[in-house]
């Protein structure tokens, strides 16, 4: 009888103790701050405006990304992609390499030899501050870097 009385009193006490041991619910606050502005010009808008409802969009209205950049450049008379052939009037040497314009620290270059079209196109990567040489004709190339030195540091 004493054991049953003890169990009757102990059960509620144990369940009360267990419920008090449960972890408390944590409430986290969420705050938002205004975005800092650098004061510089806004980035170029590379998204089209889209068409008005019920109409078919033009290329300029629906183009995005690099396609839009190229279309806007064509409208301004600017060739945004340098697709002109390299100087093939001479053989590049270490003392006088052929300069390749670039806005990035490396560029893919295709050599057709000297004189032009004397061999199949050989592709190689040309890097900033390093000479590149065609393995077929030996012509030497260098990168004429015109870009921002630290433009891609946010990617790493």
Q: Report helical residue fraction.
A: 10-25%
Rg over C-alpha atoms, rounded to the nearest angstrom: 34 Å
Strand order of the largest sheet: 1-5-4
Shape: extended
Describe the largest sheet: 3 strands, mixed
Name the structural class: alpha+beta
- Strand percentage: 15-25%
Average pLDDT, rounded to a whole number, is 77
**Assembly state here?**
single chain
H/I helix tally = 3
- How far apart the termini lie comes to 75 Å
Low-confidence regions: 1-10
DSSP strand tally: 5
Order of helices and strands: HHHEEEEE
Give the key terms:
disordered N terminus, 156 residues, alpha+beta, extended, three-stranded mixed sheet
Short description:
This protein has 156 residues and is α+β, with helices and mostly antiparallel strands. It has 3 helices and 5 strands.
